[in-house]
Amino acid sequence: MITRRDFILYTMKGIAGLALPLTAFEILSPNKLLAAKGDTSKVRWAFLVDTFKCVGCGFCVKACKLENDVPLDANVTKTWVERYVLTKDGRVHSDTPKGALHGFTTSKIDLGLGKFQDIKKEDIEKAFFVPKLCNHCENPPCVQVCPVGATYQTPDGVVLVDRKWCIGCGYCIMACPYGVRFFHPVHKVADKCTFCYHRITKGLKTACVQACPFGARMLGNIRDPNDPVSKIIRTERVGVLKDEYGTRPQVYYRGITREVI
Amino acid sequence: MVHGEAWTVKELFVTPNEYIYWSIQIVMYPFMTGLVAGAFVLSSLYHVFGIKQLREIARFALVFSLALLPVAMMPLQLHLQQPQRGIEVFLTPHFTSAIAAFGIVFSTYGVIVASEIWFVYRKYIVERALALRNKADKSAGEKIYHLIFSVLTLGSYDVSEKALHQDEKAIKILAGIGIPVACFLHGYAGFIFGSVKANALWMTPLMPVIFIMSAVVSGIALCMLTYIVVMEIRKFLAARRRTTYGTYHSIEEIKGIEINVIRMTAKYLLFFLIFAISLELLDLIFRGYTAVKTWDILRSIIYGKDFMDIFVFQYGIGNLIPFILFLLPGLTIRRTVVGVILVLFGVFMMRWNVVIGGQSFSLTFAGFMHYHLPIIPHDMETFKEGLMGALMVIITPFVLFWILNKIFPVFGVEESH
User: Fold this and answer.
1) C-beta atoms of B366 and A92 within 8 A
2) Cβ neighbours, 10 Å, residue A117
3) Same structural domain for residues A105 and A179?
4) How much is the mean pLDDT over chain A?
């Protein structure tokens, strides 16, 4: 008769024996497979912000919130505009009241805690606005850290969140060096700018691009040599934000200075 | 209201989406896992390295680490925005994420602790099961106990000399494997923070090591504290009943054993405490010396906004004072109690300063966020991620320990080996 000890022993040997030939197979991730076949995608979305043209009206912020169902009064936003005021004493004053949802209605700098700072016109060396949004990085840290794979990158380079899969741990929010992620106040999952994926895949412009009265925002396909955005990125002097993190951001800026972070 | 808005106050230039998203529960998480890992390492010192003086506290620490284990997961579950999907971390892990390893590490560790306890208590389980089986008229409680112990034997009633010797070997192996796994369980909690490149305060390869060292410190401290409390209760009971209680026969005997165990354990506590402090100071000095771009904002946090939390509460009250208390000759029980409570407080403050401190400055490096712990809850969110939620997490392991102690009594049982 077979004893229990033997039975367990044989079972383990059997499993080990069966597992051995299985090691001959390699488990391929879909990404690896795609890479092996060569990246065939003809589209890689990239964004261009011309800070020379931005006046800080905040139309883009409002349009984005309306288009993407982020409650207007909620203190989170997928895109926002920052104001930088550099004074002659070499100091940088910057703010973004409510993400510039209502634009910049006062020349006073918002210091938080209900305090404001008045800066005299004659003290100002230079001042400008910088719109911010998700950089849809080539190497997105948010996708790397998601424990369940709810955040992913589409073949055309857009980083999206699966609302039905996100567990709401907030690791992606912590991992993003640009602070573009937040918890959606209604859906209670991580949320972010999608480059209006539902619109651009149908040939429409993003809501912010459409709303900008000055043409400060543009979206284009960086793989298309004739695309106007692609041309500017290739031929002009443009910069990106926080490239020291190795994220390879895909939102390019004309006219940013070292003060912009 | 947006998540995090209830307890975050922003100052100066902070971008719109920045809040303190990881709040008190994420402070509790490394604190609790630290206690688990520390308790296990303490028990392994006896089982693997054969440090005989720790024999009394080793089994205690082992059962306590099992009681703490489910509690390591509790704060994570309480902080999730979609807690019902928490199980997906186990079912559909995305392995480039540090958190995804949680399922594997946590279950491996759980299996090791549970099986080690089983081997340690096997003889006792068999004896109880047989005694209850032979008993004629069992009460309802005894019937339940009989069922529990019969199931726990897993069908193995062999308590011969040879079998017990094999148990002993198994315990040694399990405790041996357990040490690196316990370190991994906690080291990886440090990795979760240390690998966030977007956070200037968190990002350092030292983070996992610092976490492990302080984990062992806190685990030993909690075991000592609970051990003293249990021994005091036993002394009290022994005095009141004026009869023999447990294995020991008199209050003097209990006292003698207690102080011996405590003095021995305190030495190990000091040893790990020195390691932990050295690493933390190394990290601080290194940051100041290299002074990269982020140092300006870090300095204003470390030496300015969080000065009290870091230098007074963590290093002063939490490290320096207990350090002196333990070093002074003639260690008494009373002094030990004060010392270990301060050590636990210090480790808690260290977690606090890492988790909350790391989120108290903006990504713009030009603004700050202040955290206000919700004390009186006014909705589910402020309950879960407030003082109440934290207290729940603190109390649970003691309740679990009390229940576990009914099945695996930590005192008065002959060792299987």
Assistant:
1) yes
2) 12
3) no
4) 91
Please state the φ and ψ torsions of residue B397, each to the nearest 5 degrees. Answer: -60, -35
Whether residue A119 sits in one domain with residue A52: yes
Give the range with max mean pLDDT: A49-63, B145-159, B223-237.
A49-63
User: Are residues A183 and A203 located together in one domain of the fold?
Assistant: no
Nearest to A124 by CA among A97, A100, A91, A95: A91
3-class SS shares of chain A: helix, strand, coil, % to 5 = 30, 20, 50
- Pick A99's closest partner by Cβ from B16, B94, B365: B16
pLDDT surpasses 90 at A171: yes
- Which residues of A are less than 8 Å from B105 in CB distance? none
Phi, psi of A187 (to 5 degrees): -80, -15
Crossing angle, helix B251-290 and helix B24-47, to 10 degrees?
Answer: 120
Domain count, chain A: 2
Q: In terms of residue numbers, what domain contains A155?
A: 141-191
Structure tokens given for B193: 């923070």
Nearest Cα of chain A lies from the Cα of B9 at a distance, in angstroms, of 7
Is there a single domain that holds both residue A70 and residue A133? yes
Residue A86 maps to which CATH number? 3.30.70.20
pLDDT of residue B71: 87
pLDDT above 70 as % of chain B:
96
